[in-house]
Amino acid sequence: MCEGDPVNQNWEDRVAAAWASFDDYPEERAHEFRALIDALVDELPDDSPLGLFEQACAWDSTGHSDKAAPLYRAALAGGLGEVSGYKSRRARIQLASSLRNIGQAEEGVRLLTPELDAPSDELDDAVRACLALCLSSLGRDREGLSLVLGALAPHLPRYQRSMANYARALVEP
Question: I need a surface site. Which of 36, 53, 76, 124 has the fewest CB within 10 A?
């Protein structure tokens, strides 16, 4: 499947519809949601990075960070970045969050820190939020708070400059 291929768009639309139905699956039916995603993934070539990514998301969203992390890693290693830069960035954010959940926050910090210098997009604040959580898990709360305040500042109706300055002051020597 190639980006822009109508079959690919059809598949992406069906995946989006499946995710739109996620709240219809209470915790006791989480396995049914994962089966829905698995059925869509079965339409892709074996070890498709898109399929691995969607399966990782399904495990992650149903409370199984331990099962999601290896799938995120496989998707990234399998070329997810060549298929979708956006989903690749999402995978790094979500992998870092999963790593934090399974006690590997330091690896999450290493994974997300380079994302602070990546080209800006709508995921910038999510990068900072997940990185802040990883830092906090490591006892580096001031750094995490600095990231969160820096991400929040542009969204405030007032005090943007003050909050940005406070964020910087938290981590400056």
Answer: 124
Q: Which residue has the tokens 């997009």?
A: 121
- In angstroms, rounded to a whole number, what is the distance separating the alpha carbons of residues 162 and 22? 39
Q: Homologous superfamily of 6-115 in CATH? A: Tetratricopeptide repeat domain (1.25.40.10)
Q: Which of 106, 78, 75, 104 is nearest to 92 (CA)?
A: 75
What is the residue extent of each domain of the chain? 6-115
* 124-160 residue pLDDT tens: 999 999 999 999 999 999 999 999 999 999 999 999 9
Q: Whole-angstrom Cα distance, residue 147 to residue 129?
A: 7
- Amino acid symbol at 72: Y
Q: How far apart are CA 157 and CA 22, in angstroms?
A: 33
CA distances from 42 to 36, 50, 51, 55, 67 (A): 10, 11, 8, 11, 18
Alpha carbon distances (Å) from 81 to 77, 85, 128, 148: 9, 5, 20, 26
